[in-house]
Amino acid sequence: MEAGKLYELPELNFGLADLSPFLSEEQLTIHYEKHHRAYVNGANLILEKIEKARSENLELDVRSISKELSFQMSGHVLHSLFWRNLAPAGRGGGGEPNGILGEMISKQYGSFARFKKEFTQGAVSVEGSGWMTMIYCGQTRRILPMQIEKHNMNVIPGHKFILVLDVFEHAYYIDYKNDRAKYVSAFWDNVDWTEIKKRVNKLIV
Description:
The protein has one domain: minor pseudopilin epsh fold, CATH 3.55.40.20. The longest helix is centred in the N-terminal third of the chain and has 31 residues, at 25-55. The mean pLDDT is 95. By secondary structure, the protein is mainly alpha-helical. The protein has helices spanning 25-55, 62-84, 99-109, 112-124, 173-176, 180-187, 193-204; strands spanning 130-137, 142-149, 160-166. It has a three-stranded antiparallel β-sheet.
């Protein structure tokens, strides 16, 4: 990594109006431009604070800094993954996965319907704000569910994200108010399985 490089807001693979009706242009714009950018800026401010303390030989509250950096960085990383596993419905989004991923889901879950049901139940039941994810365990070669509270609590270390869904209220409140279940249901028509398969293939091939 280039010394001194800071985090950047990633470019989207779609236009801000392209995910409608799943996410309106207003909802997506606020989520991406305001909330995600805030995590990027927050993480960068902490990095600059660390560099300043070291260069000027100042005291640094490592415990506090570590906790704050974990939250801001996790917000940035998870949002970046989230945008990349979305695509407009009917234009890359929706349907069911095939290939190695489809075979893994069929073998481990019995059917895609069962996989979808488990993920949906996990997403709807995240306590407070957080994320629902599916991760890949290289040791057991299994796809496993993982709820994350906030951005960084209840994380299983060392496992790779395959599919992520933001269930913070800021992700859906403009379009769905407090109806998280409706938001999660609409999400399935916008999952980019081509991207998800790429993630899986990199891990197992």
